[in-house]
Amino acid sequence: xxxxxxxxxxxxxxxxLEARDKVTGQxxxxxxxxxxxxxxxxxxxxxxxxxxxSNVDIADALALDGVLAVLWHGNAPRLEPGDxxxxxxxxxxxxRYYGEVVALVxxxxxxxxxxxxxxxxxxxxVAAADTVLRADHPGLYEPEIVNAGYQGRLDHGDFDTxxxxxxxxxxxxxxxxxxxxxxxxxxxxxxxxxxxxxxxxDATQASSAVRETLAALxxxxxQLVRVHNEHVGGGFGAxxxxxxxxxxxxxxxxxxxxxxxxALGRSMLFALAGYRTPTIQRIRLGADRNGRLLAVGHESIxxxxxxxxxTEQCAVVSRVNYATPNxxxxxxxxxxxxxxxxxxxxxxxxxxxxxxxxxxxxxxxAGNWDPVQLxxxxxxxxxxxxxxxxxxxxxxxxxxxxxxxxxAGRDPRPASRREGRWLLGTGVAAASFPAITWPSTATARATxxxxxxxxxxxxDIGTGARTVMxxxxxxxxxxxxxxxxxxxGDSAIGFATVAGGSMGTSSWGWAVTKACRLLxxxxxxxxxxxxxxxxxxxxxxxxxxxxxxxxxxxxxxxAQFCAVRVDPxxxxxxxxxxxxxxxxxxxxNPTTARSQLVGGMTMGVSMAxxxxxxxxxxxxxxVTSDLASYHVAVNADIPRIDVSFVxxxxxxxxxxxxxxxxxxxxxxxxxxVTNAVYHAIGVRVRSLPITPAALLRAVPG
Length: 701
Hints:
Layout: H1 19-23, E1 39-45, E2 51-57, H2 59-62, E3 67-72, E4 94-95, E5 101-107, H3 110-118, E6 121-126, E7 154-156, H4 159-165, E8 168-176, E9 188-194, E10 197-202, H5 207-217, E11 225-228, H6 244-256, E12 260-263, H7 266-272, E13 279-287, E14 293-305, E15 327-336, H8 349-367, H9 371-377, H10 394-405, E16 418-419, E17 422-434, E18 441-446, E19 452-455, H11 465-477, E20 484-487, H12 504-526, E21 536-541, H13 543-547, E22 555-566, E23 573-583, H14 590-609, E24 615-616, E25 621-622, E26 641-645, H15 669-681, H16 692-698
Parallel strand pairs: 1-12, 10-11, 14-15, 19-20, 23-26
Antiparallel strand pairs: 1-5, 2-4, 2-6, 3-5, 7-15, 8-13, 9-10, 9-12, 13-14, 16-17, 17-22, 18-19, 18-21, 22-23, 24-25
């Protein structure tokens, strides 16, 4: 059991500390830092998916006034090979995907750099490319480990026997498309070298990881690399790992001896910043006549690139949500001539829950059971590996959500409610996401004027990290928040984990709590309760603390309820309202927590009805590579979203008792929408997004 304290500031709704800086333009992002002699870089991208560059003619580009250099594999500095094959930029003539960087132009202005890029002539030997994921692809294989360290396959019991013995069965295949993050701030870097030390301002969710990666690539001691990310304009996972922009900017800055800025264009992000892999998922569910699950099967197929292996852990959600004596879960992946996929908000759990929670809804319809009661009746106190949950309040979320939403009295018959030209429907889905805590460090310093300076290398990507860290610090110090100054976004502070996996607050907050407690103890024990004129500082590392925790399955849970209207004549789907009820441990700041959950649910609606990246199979190019053709939900699409919290006290998490919320909101959201669409019109669409055309194609006749 982790030592906790009575919170004073934790749980209070507080405005964001950086809000005024952002709305007044004072917040500086990666390329807002101006340096003497700065210049600009612009990449040249491959216009084919597979082949080999035979020649790069840079003469016309260099002849342009203001162009300082053109880097390509024939003249670029050598990088040290390591674990980052996707970052070995301009090191080889090989091209592995459409849009891969084959040259980089550096010029005195961004406009001249772009003009120079257009003047670079690339000759290549192009080969036939394999770019399309399909369920019968001969290259599919089963990895032992998938994303986040999960086993690729996990079975228990006898699935075939259980499924065959079931009174009610569902066997369906669900598909999700390629999706892109499209954060407001593009991937961007300002890089400069000074006395052999590399400094970068980078749009990253993980400055510590960027620092270690750059040190390895450029053969530098880590202490000679410093990464700043004080403000980051969104990420959703795409900025969770080092990206080509930071390596290219650092390389160019070293070559020309001047600061270099590189902000990728919006269309470039579709190839160079990662994406959510498309998935094909087969779900098989078998239940007895009372609705008890006898067998659950979840098979997931996805794609990766030829450069690095990444396997989305879609089937993992079926190891958590429900009890069953017979389970089979597996993942298969195929390496294609495509850009590397990556984390996107709730990787694995998001597309996985769409498939599982849609199938649960189909099972409820087949057995004539209420979808809420079916989920409640199959609740469990352990995960598929037998670990007990540290806390689990999914049933409470479902019951409270049903009451708040007005679920009672719902007519289960599809297409039974009409309002003018609209058919009305309601749907529900469960949500779960791991409550992860990774080691981090923090430093706390007291000054003689009764103020405290707390530094933790958190990344505030729009989540309110600064704000909640100050609340946590003030609680641990036992002082007003106004006495605490928080510093984040600088790798020089010390190691801290990524702002991803919904682990930020739990990980950084534990380090902050430990440092502040140690500081208070030192002031009281060594200095008699008085801060000396020179101040007092302590540092803390939570590595050992986290390793000493007990063995539990730690997860946050929630329930999503949705009401939609469907026009059967046009196929148009409109969201009427949505409710999410969540059990996320102790809520540090209700304002920022609600914002994260509303954002996640909005992305879930967008996933269900709008989002898809279209690939041209002939070229391997993502053709919906701008915000005009890649559709996302806007204000008119989201009339009403409500969020509620179930009080939860879990002593097995961290000193704050918090779980992550950043990703939980999107998990289950798409399934709730699609289940509501089925209830409205009586047609089940198993491939996202449910566009009007897709819905009309699914309507019989």
